[in-house]
Q: What sequence folds into this?
């Protein structure tokens, strides 16, 4: 075991040292933060890192842009608009990037594994095999411990399919990010924002379903006089977005931070400039890697749990609205009798 | 074909501690958000309108004051309603 650890550490240091030396050869010296940011950022340029050698360039998928996307002059020359700034100029960037490919891969892997493991002998009550039992354990955990405990046994089962999809998809993306040559799609703000928008839509639909469209819209007015609606309606609408914003930032920051810490621990060898630093930084990086494995599950769990909690709160608001309506009508009767 | 059994009404006893606590706290969180949100919407709305109309600081001052007043009103109304419910 000890020999294996030493071998692992030496290989890691040698690989990193070789990559650094390669960088010197090109006359361009990337700093440790540059290397890390390049590694965690999204791009449509694919390359394969090879231990003890230069990375192999796999090629770039041509960008797909819709709208007014003429290149504009910047400090770095003529650049085509992309991302959020491009969207503000009316250019929608739909390029297939590293993280998009990771999402597709996660979806295909999930479809494959879940279809195989869930296809059991229906004549027997108890599923057999490790995969089927593992999936059943996770599905039951999401249904009993998340959906029913946060939404309620009456409405909970209705939202289990969404919660299971979110849980397994996030888990698959988080775990793929820990495999060599892969990327963490959940370390991208756009991906986590997309997932949070899905939860937002389901939460609002749950609120409308529970309170009715009239009750939902009435809730948005904050219960104040109509002359105050121009201020109160934006306040309530702004309040709706705080929860998905928290979901977006939590998942993104946790996944990105873990990877940056991992890279910086290895980068310490180059920052301090002595191979002996590897004796400390490599075991630490290995420990953080194991922690990241745990975090992959924890973050999928937290996102699903919070989604269930928010859906439960939206459902409860509708029920409370009903109670409140009854209470007010009772109150009215009381007044009439008095 | 037998008629579908009506779904059992939940009394909330199956809910987890966090869900129960969050549901209990939600009306108070909403009330506090009204207090803060009123000021936020007033300030941001006033700033944006001032920039758009070039009306100096007046809309910012006016809408901020109005936003804070509406926020306070919404907060106090919500707290009074919660007090009545108890």
A:
């Amino acid at each position: 075991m000890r020999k294996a650890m030493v071998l692992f550490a030496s290989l890691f240091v040698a690989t990193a040292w070789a990559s650094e030396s390669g960088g010197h050869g090109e006359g361009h010296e990337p700093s440790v933060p540059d290397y890390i940011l390049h590694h965690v950022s999204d791009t449509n340029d694919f390359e394969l890192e090879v231990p003890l050698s230069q990375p192999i360039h796999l090629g770039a998928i041509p960008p797909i842009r819709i709208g007014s996307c003429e290149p504009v002059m910047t400090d770095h020359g003529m650049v085509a608009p992309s991302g959020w700034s491009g969207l503000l100029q009316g250019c929608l960037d739909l390029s297939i990037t590293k993280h998009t490919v990771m999402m597709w891969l996660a979806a295909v892997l999930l479809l494959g594994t879940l279809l195989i493991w869930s296809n059991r002998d229906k004549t027997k009550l108890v599923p057999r095999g490790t995969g089927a039992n593992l999936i059943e354990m996770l599905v039951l955990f999401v249904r009993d411990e998340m959906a029913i405990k946060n939404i309620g046994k009456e409405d909970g089962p209705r939202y289990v399919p969404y919660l299971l999809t979110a849980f397994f998809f996030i888990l698959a993306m988080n775990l793929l990010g820990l495999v060599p040559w892969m990327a963490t799609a959940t370390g991208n703000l756009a991906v986590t924002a997309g997932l949070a928008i899905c939860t937002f839509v389901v939460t609002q639909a749950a609120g409308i379903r529970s309170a009715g469209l009239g009750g939902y819209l009435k809730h948005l007015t904050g219960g104040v006089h109509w002359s105050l609606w121009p201020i109160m309606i934006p306040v309530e609408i702004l309040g709706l977005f705080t929860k998905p914003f928290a979901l977006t930032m939590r998942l993104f920051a946790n996944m990105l931070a873990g990877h940056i810490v991992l890279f910086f621990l290895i980068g310490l060898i180059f920052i301090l400039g002595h191979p002996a630093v590897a004796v400390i930084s490599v075991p630490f990086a290995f420990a953080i890697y194991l922690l990241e494995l745990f975090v992959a599950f924890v973050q999928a769990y937290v996102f699903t749990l919070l989604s269930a909690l928010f859906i439960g709160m939206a459902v409860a608001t509708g029920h409370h609205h009903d109670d409140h309506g009854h209470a007010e009508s009772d109150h009215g009767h009381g007044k009439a009798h008095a | 074909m037998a008629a579908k059994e009506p779904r059992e009404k939940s009394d909330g006893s199956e809910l987890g501690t966090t869900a129960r606590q969050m549901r209990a706290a939600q009306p108070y969180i909403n009330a506090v958000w009204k207090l803060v949100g009123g000021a936020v919407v007033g300030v941001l709305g006033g700033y944006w309108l001032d920039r758009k109309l070039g009306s100096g600081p007046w809309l910012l001052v006016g809408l901020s004051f109005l936003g804070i007043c509406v926020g306070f009103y919404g907060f106090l109304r919500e707290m009074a309603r919660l007090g009545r419910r108890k």
User: Anything to note?
Assistant: The interface with chain B takes residues 145, 148-155, 222-224, 228, 231-232, 234-236, 238-239, 242, 309, 312-313, 316-317, 320, 327 of chain A (CB under 8 Å).
